[in-house]
Design a protein that fits this description.
By secondary structure, the protein is of the alpha+beta class. It contains 20 helices and 19 strands. Strands 11, 13, 15, 16, 18 and 19 form a six-stranded mixed sheet that branches. A hairpin with a 2-residue loop joins strand 1 (326-327) and strand 2. The longest helix is centred in the first third of the chain and has 70 residues, at 155-224. It is globular, with a radius of gyration of 36 Å. The two termini are 55 Å apart.
Length: 625
Amino acid sequence: MSWLVSWLLFRPLFYSVLYGVPLLGFWVASSLAAYLGGPHWIPWAAGLLMFPVLPGLWELHAWGHQKPNTKPWFTLVDRIGMRTFTVGLLFLSVMLYLYPQSAFVSLSTRGDWMLDDVKDPRIASARPYLFQAAGAVEWLYQATKTNPYKAHIDPEARQRAEEATKQLQLEIAQRAVAEKRKPEQNQADQIDGVEQRKEGTQTAKTNGTDERNEHANKLQQNKHVGERKENGRTAGQSHSLQGHQTQIAKGDQIAQGNGDSTTTAQKDHTDSSNQQESNQKQHKTDPSGQNDLIEKGSNQTAKQSHSEVNSQKGQTSVSHQNKKASLIGNPSVKWPWPGGALHPLVSQMPASAEASIDGVAHYIADREPDPVLRIKALHDYVADRIAYDSESYYAHNIPPQDAEIIFKKRKGVCAGYANLMSALAAAIGEQVIVVSGDSRSRADDKLTGSGHAWNAARIGNRWCLLDACWDAGFVTPEKGFTKCYKSDYLLPPAEVMIQDHFPEQQDWQLLSKPLSQGDFLRQPMLRPGFQAADLQLIVPRRACTESGPEAMVIVKNPDNYWLMADLQQDGKNISVSCDPTNSETAQLICAIPGKGTYRFNVFLNKSPDRSSSYEFIGCVEFVNR
């Protein structure tokens, strides 16, 4: 009987494995088609071949060549199932071999294609499980992708990064233990409070019993002293009345005090409400709170004095989306940084101070006491003095990127920028390390992006992120490197940096809840300028979306900036009509000319003039099949 039960339990598992493998093969093929823009019929044709066409033909061939009077070992259903498993396993292996990276990316971004038009929330809730299943092939993605810049990190910088990683992991573990102890401590405090209340109640009961016993003894004594009874009673009544009057007086004082306190609290609440209404009215008058700041920042020059930089601290208003955060170590300085000026020490640095890395670092350290502005000065020096080596980048031939070489040549790629930043900081005892990982930019023609290197800096007791390379300018195949200093990637919030920078080691995301590789690939590719302008992406919420003949992006635009869009395919711009808009709920619509995958780029213009220049702030992909 036990063997029968075991067999009945084994059969469903046996068949689920046999037919599950070809189903996985179909899922990979259909997700690749959805991600790459392939025709719908290709994955369905592959699915029919895996079952029942090829297994059926295989069975017919075996039946035709079967020897007479030979009894098969397995039933027809078992044979068909095992042949289906073999065909499906072969197909899945070939797909993963040919598309090791695209398979994971397609499953992580478009693996839920079958739920696109599903309205039932119970069925749509299957999405997280599909994406968790996609994570099963992440190892293949990690094993086959390379970061060419990781090998160019200086040995000293690599060692500093390893030590900092251990330090960060220890701090994370300590915070986790502290967070775990908080509920236990709160529970212990509650228990102590209950015990104290019990002890207080018991003490009150004991005191009450003692008082009643004492009162009974006094009555007994008064009973035996007849001649003093009346006087004793009179004295007791007088004393009781006097005590009662005293209690009433004290009660009035307490009530009066509480009344004053309540009146004061109500007054404070009213004042606070009035102040809040006043602030709201002021906010409505100037929703962005940045008009004066932007105007002042645009008029700054490289000759700005150190006192002028300090006077700008705190001018940037706090965003209603909490994207403009106080910088670590200096709550008066906000991100995004006001204006676009270099630190005065960098713009006015004499040539004699630039003889060596140590000379530059100590020139800055000796003159800038503020730890945040000191990191800014180092960042500004690297971003301003080093040009991007676009020739080596496009030739895929990266020369050595040692800090000393980059300092002398004044040219390098991302690893060179990061190495020099780390070396400058180390020369003056600042803790700045090199972080390697993936990044996504407008120049990348793939959703996965490419390898990259940037920095993490410790200011006070906290870590923050920066990328001097991406703040130096931009590159194009036609013009090469174009110098254009900015501070978008200078100590932004970790939630902003993770939009286009994904570190190899999860801890350097510096997020309370780190993102997985699939989470990073699914999110739209937004630049810091998007968050700095208080924009919010409403539609789509994913990096890759299937569309029809029109692609539409909806953006919440509270400050009524001008927004514009264009389309690209295979890295080439397409001439289509995408009219600018400054609506509070901006709808950017571009007509898709044909089948395929298109990149939808969004641009921002903060000037009231719609014809002024626009900056790139993000992109998503649309697939028209």
